[in-house]
Design goal:
Length: 266
């Protein structure tokens, strides 16, 4: 049993009623085609921050879901219909065939973003989607997902192949290096998480990953401490971080991902 399997974070109290209702609505809409509902992201990694974190959910369904079901699910879960207590809900629905393959693609049937601090979207076509977000989430689901209902996430969501996972991490670090649309603290902490995964083969919560990098690379300590302090604030109160230092750190993180990929033949 690996470390990810041994860790069993619990669903935060602030989310329990909400997630129970999400499960109820998934089952009501998808019926017997529903296979599994699991929490991933910060909830699964034990670092959910109320007022800052999104709640990330993966749903797996069997083939044959009626065509109207996914738009109906998106409507029933929209923040105006079911107020989200977190910064937002990011819910992804996969077909069981796609979820069960170690794919490097986005592969979703529905990608729903809704909540008080998220731009509303309900995508039913993964064409042109930035696949790396979904590859990383499926890896976390496989290794650490908290099953809220149905089949265990580890059994129905496949771990992406190493080459696909390294490709996703490269793309994620590039996305954060660009910086568009992302808070500076989140850019830095996601870079930490990518490097820690490359070094250890384990997903760590963002703040824990920052601590590991700060201990190993003291020159980045002040930036990482500032990023953690900012991350501990509500999202609208996030601090500005020195742009040049953020770029330097993410360039370093990108180089570490490249090295790990090359060493693994990925």
């Amino acid at each position: 049993m690996n470390d990810d399997e041994e860790r069993r974070p619990v669903v935060p109290a602030e989310l329990r009623g909400y997630l129970a209702e999400v499960v109820r609505r998934v089952r009501a809409v998808c019926g017997e085609r529903a296979v599994s509902v699991a929490a991933v992201g910060s909830v699964a990694l034990g670092d959910y921050r109320h007022g800052r974190s999104d709640v990330d959910v993966v749903v797996v369904v069997e083939p044959g879901l009626p065509g109207a079901a996914l738009p109906e699910l998106a409507e029933r879960l929209a923040h105006r219909r079911l107020p989200c207590p977190a910064a937002g809900l990011e819910l992804v629905v996969y077909g069981a065939d796609a979820a069960g393959r170690p794919s490097g693609g986005a592969g979703y049937l529905l990608n729903l973003n809704t909540g008080p601090l998220l731009t509303e979207r309900a995508d039913l076509d993964d064409t042109g989607a930035a696949a790396f977000w979904f590859v990383v989430d499926r890896s976390i689901a496989h290794r650490a997902g908290i099953t809220l209902w149905g089949a265990p996430a580890r059994r129905v969501v496949a771990e992406p192949a190493p080459a696909e996972l390294f490709s996703a991490l490269r793309a994620a670090v590039r996305e954060h290096a660009d910086g568009t649309g992302h808070l500076a603290d989140n850019r830095v902490l996601n870079g930490c998480r990518a490097v820690v995964f490359c070094r250890t083969g384990r997903w760590r919560a963002k703040r824990a990953a920052a601590g590991e990098i700060a201990a190993a690379e003291p020159r980045f300590g002040p930036l990482l401490e500032a990023a953690v302090r900012s991350y501990e604030r509500p999202r609208p109160e996030a601090a500005a971080l020195p742009a040049a230092e953020v770029r330097t750190f993410l360039a370093w993180a990108g180089a570490r991902v490249e090295e790990a990929a090359a060493a693994a033949g990925g």
